[in-house]
Specification:
Blueprint: H1 2-15, H2 17-45, E1 57-66, E2 69-73, H3 80-87, E3 91-96, E4 101-107, E5 110-119, H4 123-126, E6 131-133, E7 145-149, H5 150-157, E8 166-169, E9 173-181, E10 194-197, H6 198-203, E11 219-223, H7 229-237, H8 245-250, E12 253-258, H9 262-265, E13 268-269, E14 272-273, H10 278-306, H11 308-320, H12 325-362, H13 373-398, H14 403-408, H15 420-450, E15 461-465, H16 474-483, E16 487-493, E17 503-504, E18 508-509, E19 520-524, H17 529-533, E20 537-540, E21 554-558, H18 559-565, E22 574-577, E23 580-588, E24 603-606, E25 617-622, H19 628-642, E26 651-652, H20 653-658, H21 662-696, H22 698-706, H23 711-745, H24 756-782, H25 786-790
């Protein structure tokens, strides 16, 4: 029986090559798109899930009322880690970890930069990064030990064993390799090439520790097995208030955030976890994957039911000779599963061909693990599900024909106003139009933020880390860059102009409201920041230490800070911050330091005598009279002269600023790509339906032409029904898309308004695509010779 089913399915496949091709192609493209999306989703869901103790790992967060709302962030004081181990018996291990930094590795004459993190010795006991060599419990106990990844070890020592070898880091200290880790997987929040011990950080004279007021270090906690999390959460909540007086007045709380929520859910509004974060995109793309697959299945359903008259006699004869309805249902579902299997094989080829470009675009290393039994089971389950979904409606529809009517020839197609086929076409195009509108709005939002005035001039502005000997030779490097005509202005700052490395509250000034808890972004600058970055001064002037030596305790504020401080005449006013009294020398227009999608925040640009900030970055305005390449080549020679052990690696401010749009750009492009696929699959089905309609109405068209109907009349006759369905789809899709985009845009304080023309473009485009799809078969049928179609009458 089963063999007979497949034989019939195979013969039907060969007998209707055109429709079979459309069915298989549509299903294959839909399945391939769904597989690609599901691979992305699976990768997102798998983040940090490989750690064996994942259910006991937490990150400590702060929750503090500031600026009239409750803020949460995931970095704490360096003092917290040891206190947690001392005060909470439920805690098994605690590990602090610095943010990644670049470190110079030297072995003889060979030097290279590696990205690393400084961590407590318990880090490798909390997290399950597989060690090829070494002991996780002791690898980082020595202050001059270093743990490398396999790739890093190979790049440093070649094929020689790395364990026990000595390497110089930062051209200053010797470190012994005490452990080799497997290369980190792509589905981890951590991305380092080496680990250095926290004990070494304590001996580093450059380290500044501001105690409980410094909250810039991630802290990870491993709870003991079978610990009551609620009890520990209550204990840690007010822990900081026991050690820090200001925490009591601020109602400062600490809380532990579980590892399984780090990647997808770490988004907070007014102190509570909200529905934002990456989980939104996982849900969104899950829906897109489901709908793309559904649309492909709808094509199958529509084409199968459209060809029902050709299968009606077969059904009638089978029923007459004793076939039961369930047997026929099984046959038709078997045929659809067979087609789904063929489509699945084609989809696999499409996925394998697409993965390199897809991985490059998504910055992931996605792959199909064909050697894994679970993968094979999932794939065949996916095919079976698709076959059942695609074949369910046609199977019940075709098996319901009454043999008496079919064999008498009284079986007729219905021309009802509302039919399942029309509903399915409307559903297809509704989703396609929703995606078209969403893609346009997302692009609008990205362009709106990208075109926003930044408040400074990014053109020809580069920065370089003050690594190695640059700090002590800064004056000489600056002088040579200017005298050689490479740069028109040079200054040094505490952080790049595109990032915030420090913020804080508790500043004092004349007339301040005692209840004010404004959180200011902090920035430190040397001479000439305004000239270098092109900042726009509305009052006062830039720092000029040669002319005004007291500018070392000068302060430049932005307009947002001035609104908070409410000075009518701010120049000369004193602002106290962490024990230093600064006098305001200038007020600048707001500039974007962090997110271009958010309102600008109040900023304090402190003079060089800051007690809590250090210079980390050199800002260089390249001379526009020479090419950028020539400027950088000459600059490389100067840096090599004064900082020979380090590679000259400048970063362009405009490129770093562009990175702020990468996430939204990626989401928008993905949505656009899958919108295009959705439209293509829908149009493929529409093309098949038009082809079939032209075939079934060929005699009617012949008669109409003989009676005087023009090509335009015939084309309109065959096209108008589909255009009506697409217009109905538009009126369903438009409000859904508006609601979805309105909700999405609510997460951005600086956002575009949804314009009416977006819907007009989507509507016109959908109708145009529909006409383009159906016009070929319509015109072909309209210009056919009517004599041939009527010859058999």
């Amino acid at each position: 029986m089963i063999r007979n089913f497949f034989k019939v399915a195979y013969r039907s496949l060969l007998r209707n090559k055109g429709f079979s091709f459309i069915n298989i192609t549509g299903l294959a493209i839909g399945m391939a798109a769904a597989i690609l999306i599901l691979l992305w989703i699976q990768h997102e869901l798998s983040y940090d899930q490989f750690h064996t103790k994942k259910d006991r790992i937490y990150e400590v967060w702060n929750r503090v009322p500031l600026d009239g709302k409750v803020r949460c962030w995931n970095s704490t004081s360096t003092l917290l880690g040891p206190i947690l181990e001392k005060d909470l018996p439920e805690v098994e291990r605690v590990a602090r970890a610095s943010y990644n930094g670049d470190y110079l590795f030297s072995i003889g004459d060979r030097k290279m930069m590696k990205t690393g993190s400084i961590v407590d010795s318990g880090f490798l006991q909390i997290f399950s990064f597989p060690m090829v060599e070494g002991n996780p419990a002791t690898a980082l106990t020595d202050p001059h030990s270093v743990v490398l990844t396999e790739t890093t070890a190979k790049s440093l020592f070649g094929n020689e064993p790395a364990m026990g070898k000595v390497v110089k880091i930062g051209n200053k200290d010797n470190f012994t390799v005490t452990g080799i880790l497997k290369d980190l997987p792509g589905n981890s929040r951590f991305d380092f090439e080496c680990l250095l011990p926290w004990e070494y950080l304590k001996t580093n004279s450059d380290r500044q520790d501001f105690g409980w007021g410094d909250n810039s270090t991630p802290t990870y906690v491993l709870l003991k097995p079978h610990t009551n999390f609620a009890a520990v959460a209550n204990k840690i909540k007010d822990l900081k208030q026991h050690y820090h007086d200001e925490s009591k007045t601020l109602h400062w709380e600490l809380f532990m955030y579980p590892l399984d929520r780090w990647r997808l859910y770490s988004s907070f509004t007014n102190g509570q976890e909200d529905s934002g974060g990456r989980s939104t995109f996982v849900k969104l793309f899950s829906i897109i994957a489901g709908f793309i697959l559904l649309i492909a299945c709808i094509n199958f359903m529509n084409l199968s039911t459209a060809r029902s008259e050709k299968r009606a006699r077969e059904v009638g004869i089978r029923k007459v000779v004793g076939a039961q309805k369930m047997s026929l249902i099984g046959q038709f579902i078997g045929e659809s599963v067979f087609l789904a299997f063929l489509a699945g094989i084609v989809a696999l080829f499409i996925v394998q061909l697409s993965l390199p470009a897809y991985n490059q675009f998504t910055a992931k290393k996605l792959f199909i693990d064909t050697g894994n039994a679970y993968t094979l089971v999932a794939f065949f389950g996916f095919i079976l599900f698709t076959g059942l979904l695609a074949g369910s409606y046609p199977a019940f529809f075709l098996s319901s024909f009454q043999p008496v009517k079919v064999l008498k020839g009284t079986f007729k197609r219905t021309h009802a106003l509302v039919t399942p086929r029309k509903i399915l076409v409307v559903l297809q195009f509704s989703f396609a139009i929703v995606l078209i509108i969403c893609t346009i709005v997302v692009k609008q939002q990205i362009d709106y933020a990208r075109e926003r005035e930044t408040g400074y001039n990014r053109d020809r502005l580069v920065y370089h880390s003050l690594n190695g000997d640059i700090t002590k030779n800064y004056a000489s490097i600056r002088e040579e860059l200017l005298s050689a005509g490479i740069a028109t202005s040079v200054t040094k700052t505490s952080s790049p102009l595109t990032d915030r490395w420090s913020d804080g509250w508790g500043q004092n000034w004349e007339g301040k409201d005692p209840n004010d808890r404004t959180d200011f972004d902090r920035f430190m600058a040397d001479d000439g920041l305004g000239a270098t970055a092109g900042l726009q001064f509305v009052q006062g002037r830039d720092f000029d230490l040669k002319k005004f030596p007291t500018d070392s305790t000068g302060l430049i504020i932005n307009e947002s800070s001035l609104k908070v401080m409410k000075f009518k005449d701010p120049i000369g006013k004193i602002v106290s911050d962490l024990g230093t009294n600064y006098h305001i020398v200038g007020v600048i227009r707001d500039f974007i330091l962090t997110s271009p999608y958010e309102p600008t925040r109040p900023i304090l640009i402190c003079g060089a005598k800051s007690s809590f900030l250090t210079f980390n970055v050199m800002q260089i305005k390249l001379n526009g009279q020479h090419s950028t390449t020539a400027n950088l080549e000459k600059a490389a020679g100067i840096f090599k002269k004064y900082n020979p052990d380090f590679v000259f690696e400048p970063k362009f401010v405009d490129a770093e600023y562009a990175r702020k749009f990468e996430s939204e750009q990626q989401q928008g492009t993905l949505a656009g790509l899958f919108a295009g696929l959705t439209v293509f699959i829908s149009c493929l089905g529409l093309f098949g339906l038009t082809t079939y309609m032209a075939e079934t109405r060929v005699k009617e068209i012949g008669v109409r032409k003989i009676m005087g109907a023009s090509v335009a009349n015939i084309t309109t006759l065959l096209s108008k029904d589909f255009v009506k369905l697409v217009i109905i789809s538009f009126f369903i899709a438009a409000p859904l898309a508006w609601w979805g985009m309105h909700k999405w845009l609510e997460s951005y304080a600086y956002r575009v308004d949804i314009a009416w023309w977006v819907f007009a473009v989507a509507g016109i485009l959908s109708v145009f695509i529909t006409l383009l799809t159906v016009s070929y078969q319509s015109i072909r049928a309209a210009i056919a010779n009517p004599v041939k179609s009527l010859r058999t009458e």
